Amino acid sequence: MSIAAPKRCKGWLQEAALLMLLNNLHPDVAERPEELIVYGGRGKAARNQEALDLIIKALEHLENDESLLIQSGKPVAILQTHEDAPRVLISNSQLVPNWATWEHFDELEKKGLMMYGQMTAGSWIYIGSQGIVQGTYETYAAVAAKHFGGSLKGTLNVTAGLGGMGGAQPLAITMNEGVALIAEVEEWRIDKRLETRYLDYKIKDLDAAIDRALEAKAKGEAISIGVHANAVHLLARLLERNVVPDTLTDQTSAHDPLIGYIPHTISLAEANQLRQSNPDAYLKLSYASMHQHVAYMLDLQKHGAITFDYGNNIRARAKEDGLENAFDFPGFVPAYIRPLFCEGKGPFRWAALSGDPADIAVTDQVIADMFPENESLQRWLKLAKERIAFQGLPARICWLGQGEREKAGLAFNELVRTGKVKAPIVIGRDHLDTGSVASPNRETEAMLDGSDAVADWPLLNALLNTAGGASWVSLHHGGGVGMGYSIHAGMVIVADGTDTAERRLARVLRNDPGIGVIRHADAGYDIAKDVARKHRLDLKEKLA
Ligand code: NAD
């Protein structure tokens, strides 16, 4: 049975790009759709309304042998390529290294010349908080395995920020059976997480929130509490009361001191006003607050809290403000995620273009049947079905490794070809992946060979996925940790049930994690060397 023709575009690849762009801006998905902001402070899907309208029009006109070029959220050309080439090529927020600061970016943004794309915001493969729930679930599962015998039951886990990404923390912690206590300054964010059932309780009073969390810890209850407070105030109170969390981290938007982080010395309303009226004064308060924030984290670490940076660059901000030992606690990647990266594992995700949740149920079953021996994957699929409400297009994510992604992608293409799902499946991933990012304070922190800041790898990743025929490919700067701190690449590929898609899927879903395995083997990791040999990715063996 062949699938129906796309409704608005001349091919399913263009239609997929259009639907995923609109999905990024769906009110249930985006943090501030009216400003085109998807997540992560000011991570946008398009530069402005005019650019968005033009992208939509361009995708509707785009032929099956043409490619649309996007420069920092603005469409700039449609050029002849060929059927197997990406339909869209995206470059977001790239600055020449010597100019790669927020200050310079802000000037350009004011002039309308640039846009901040974060990771999946500007590359049109954000699927709401579920995307990060899996990564956060994996991280806390690794924390539990390393420090607490496999479960967070009876532990107090303190963090902050309930935004687009941070909103996943309460659910990921309770899925690992722990108690979550999370500070958030914007009340509507707490309410939003309550609505989507990621968070269990809102408590406004600091002491009441701490008391309830301690009670839950004592009883071994798995609950999450959003406390309406600044993170700095919560940590100060914990220290005053001598309450030491079992784990401690933070997901406020510290990567962006002007737009993302709210200083503890002023109210939210004052912050919103000062940011406009006197950005320099705001920045001073913001840096001072992050300095204090990290100093409290270090204090709690000394008292025994297992403390880690959750990828928002707050340690660097504190250090820039003069806190010399800000990096005394580790980032979450070297501490917990790198062994997974060595196996090519990372955040594989997919969305059903039909909009029908039944299509995701079919894919869930395929994945469950395909990897029966993978216990944490089986547990995740079960919990995700029970506890995760879809936002926008129904979608699923799970961490799959070298060999597995290819297998899953080809199986999905078969589902489309045989009409077991109602429309094509879009397959993508976060840029936070094994071979697609250079980010010395996060994904590539403390590499074995010291190659943390080498950015050839994400560039090669984007070139490779373009050559292999991904449906859209993006190259971004500054995602997660801010301007000057990261270079990363994204790819999305559409399973439309055709033979050509099958060949593209086989290439792209082998090569994309493959370059991650190769990157980690090159840096000297033994697990990656073994995986490279097993999957015929080792250059010397190939040439022998
Ligand atoms: P967001 O901007 O949507 O949300 C940040 C939240 O923090 C907001 O709700 C804001 O009100 C709150 N906040 C800011 N300052 C605060 C303070 N001092 N006290 C309490 N609350 C405060 O951002 P997001 O998408 O949730 O991302 C959060 C951070 O995590 C970003 O820096 C992002 O780059 C990083 N991140 C990490 C990972 C990872 O894998 N670890 C992944 C994605 C994003």
From TrEMBL:
Residues 8-125 form the Urocanase N-terminal domain. Its cofactor is NAD(+). One of its GO terms (molecular function) is urocanate hydratase activity. Binds 1 NAD(+) per subunit. It catalyses: 4-imidazolone-5-propanoate = trans-urocanate + H2O. Its EC number is 4.2.1.49. Its main location: cytoplasm. PANTHER family: UROCANATE HYDRATASE (PTHR12216). Belongs to the urocanase family. This is Urocanate hydratase. It comes from Flavihumibacter fluminis. The lineage of its organism: Bacteria, Pseudomonadati, Bacteroidota, Chitinophagia, Chitinophagales.
